[in-house]
Amino acid sequence: MNKKIATTGNAGPKVRSDCEITLELKTRRGVVIDLTSKVKALYGESIKSLCLGLLKFFKIRDAEVKINDSGALPFVIAARLEAAIHMLVVSDREFLPEMLRENRYSTDAERQRFSRLYLPGNMPSMMINAGLHSADGIILDLEDSVAPEKKNEARILVRNALRQIDFHGAERMVRINQGETGIEDLHHVIPHNVNLILIPKCENRNQVIIVDKKIEEICKKLKINKTVFLMPIIESALGVENSFEIARASENIVAMAMGLEDFTADLGVPRTTEGKESLYARTRLIIAAKAASIQPIDSVFSDVGDMETLRQNVLESKALGFEGMGCIHPRQVPVINQGFAPDETEIEKSKKIVIAYEAAREKGLGVVAMGSKMIDPPVVARAQKTIDLAVRLGKLAQNWVKEASSEKNK
Predict the structure, then answer these.
(1) Rounded to a whole number, what is the distance in angstroms from the first to the last CA of the chain?
(2) CA neighbor of 256 nearest in space, from 319, 189, 314, 323
(3) Which of 1, 33, 41, 323 has a CA-to-CA distance to 204 between 20 and 30 Å?
(4) Over 90: is that where the pLDDT of 83 sits?
(5) CA 146 to CA 181: how far, in whole Å?
């Protein structure tokens, strides 16, 4: 006997910006919508109209829909009802909300990725204002933060979020699941202008190649002319051992991240604040990433209440060579952004190096010196990278060389 009733979404006293929908297919009774909502007087008719339109889209004429609304936006209600429909009716159709014009941006391979904020893919309340926290990337997570029985409805919610939420220029990332479940995730998110896919628990280059080829296949089929970047996550001893091969598995890889919770579990040791148990793995990942010319990204810091220890962790991470870190709470974003950005001392030193280099070039000198120290080309390149970053962050004017020359001539 075919299933006739399905429930999706979330309800409860602490739930907000979401809804729970129960759909029951009936016979010859038409459509009945039972709505419970604090905003029923204001938005009841528009909610019902949305649901009727969606049922008509999927050619469902006889059904009872019970909606327990906790302030859900239309794209959330649509996602919840569509998920319930797909649980009961075989259909390859998708009810797509309009793509916001603000969401049609692409990102660059070399862009800064100091902070990336993880958001559970089945909790719309955390998504809606995520772009206001100034994280470099927003990760809509379909993997560990979503219960197995909620994977299908989370995909639809994430798809709608990619189309309807203004992320204010943050890189729009999705962490997919492992294996075939992850491949199915790609079908739901790639067509909707996702910028970067995180590949979890990467242990060999073939895992990257499979994802990369599937993205290419989807883009080719839908005539999508854009690059979707990749970020493998290393979370096991085997992944660490294969990190360089993984880093070079695709030209679309722009960064590689460390996942310390799973890594320490794989080692069979507790994760500590000092991080001695993971130092080798982290430094090996950094070297692999740098050798492959991609960005090494550190793991999340799990104590969201300890900002001072987080600050110290960020500085140590930066000193090792990492170029960013994961966040599990918005309050961590400014600490991480500030820690990875160049400070005034770094900027001033880099300015002096670049000025000395330019002065030596103008004089035709083959040797660059600053005071009593010789400056090698790699040092100049590192200084220039710091300068470029400072300019991009607004810490240094675009025409800083001209301003520095004016000051010198006064």
Answers:
(1) 88
(2) 323
(3) 323
(4) yes
(5) 12
Domains 5-88 and 101-340 share a fold: no
DSSP secondary structure letter of residue 273? S
Three-state secondary-structure class, residue 234 = strand
Phi, psi of 135 (to 5 degrees): -70, 145
Give the mean pLDDT of the chain: 92
Alpha helices in 271-376 (DSSP H): 279-291, 307-320, 332-340, 344-362
Order the strands of the 115-120 sheet from edge to edge: 295-297, 255-258, 229-234, 196-199, 171-175, 137-141, 115-120, 325-327
101-340 CATH pick, 3.10.450.50, 3.40.50.1000, 3.40.30.10, 3.20.20.60: 3.20.20.60
In this structure, is the dihedral angle defined by the CA atoms of residues 18, 24, 30 and 33, taken in order, positive or negative? negative
Task: Determine if the pTM surpasses 0.85.
Answer: yes
Check whether 394 has a pLDDT greater than 90.
Answer: no
Length of the chain: 410
Q: What does the pLDDT look like over 180-201, one tens digit per residue?
A: 999 999 999 999 999 999 999 9
Contact indicator for 216, 94 with CB cutoff of 8 Å? no
